[in-house]
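Weekly puzzle thread! Below is a chain. First person to post its structure in token form gets bragging rights.
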Amino acid sequence: MDPHSGHVKAYVGGPSYKHFKYDMATMGKRQVGSTIKPFIYTLAMQEGLTPCDLVPNVPQTFYLPTGQTWTPRTSGNRREGEMVSLKWGLAQSNNNITAWIMKQYNPQAVVNILRSLGIKSPMDAVPALSLGAPDFGLSEMVAAYATYANKGVHSEPLFVTRIEDRYGNVISTFNPRRSEAINEHNAYLMLNLLQGVVNTGTAIRLRLTYNLRGQIGGKTGTTQNNSDGWFIGVSPNLVTGVWVGGEDRDVHFDNTYLGQGANMALPIWALYMIPAYEDPESGYSLEDEFEAPLRFDIDLNCPDEYVPQSEDEIEIETIGEQQRNEFL
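Winning reply:
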């Protein structure tokens, strides 16, 4: 999707219409896992925080109306107990940090920001939102991420620009529906956070394996039993989402190493973007840059920003479905 015009450049709804007559790109909905986390960080940016602000990397306990408590877990224990930047938290897809943001505000505030970014799917205002518990559609997720590359203006995906009769007479024309979701300043902060995921976090494979340079942001997502793998990549002029899974959720990889979004979905994004970047007629280039707002003067070089030399230094994403079941 072109984030500026809203034009959908291409989409694949299924592997074969002959055997699979259901469009998973525009009709299907699946659990989004960690791809929901940038939306929660958007709330933090909107409330005045910046990517380099430090927060405690410790488990967060929520007190539920039932009188019970719920504490989401995170994978591994890297830097546990330390003060870490929000950029580090999103790059590592750390559940402690996402839960900390959720706790500073409330689940309803997260629902509100999701609605403003164009997510229309049903969701409950509960702490499990921080783990990506709800099911969203791929097209609405891509449009929401495109908002960041469009200076905070959300555009509904536009599949058809006009209809002509057989003589070339224009019967009808269509324009994208747009609305300001967040301000340009906060959209740019989110682009910096998403670039941190690619430069230092769970999507670093784009750099290390596929040798993609330039300004690229994105977010990986993984769900329970490795049933769903997600990657949404944001470049200055094209935003693309990839979901990988079986029609039946019982179809899945046996382990998270193979089944995480960084392994299932991210390579698809890389292998189709490489020729797009290399084609001089495509209109997309690794030289494209995100435009900073006027008079933007925030230092985005965080003190704990470290570029890993291998994927072994990256936490494997925590899977959220089991913890959601515990919550429910």
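Puzzle host: Confirmed. Bonus trivia for everyone else. The chain has eleven helices and 13 strands.
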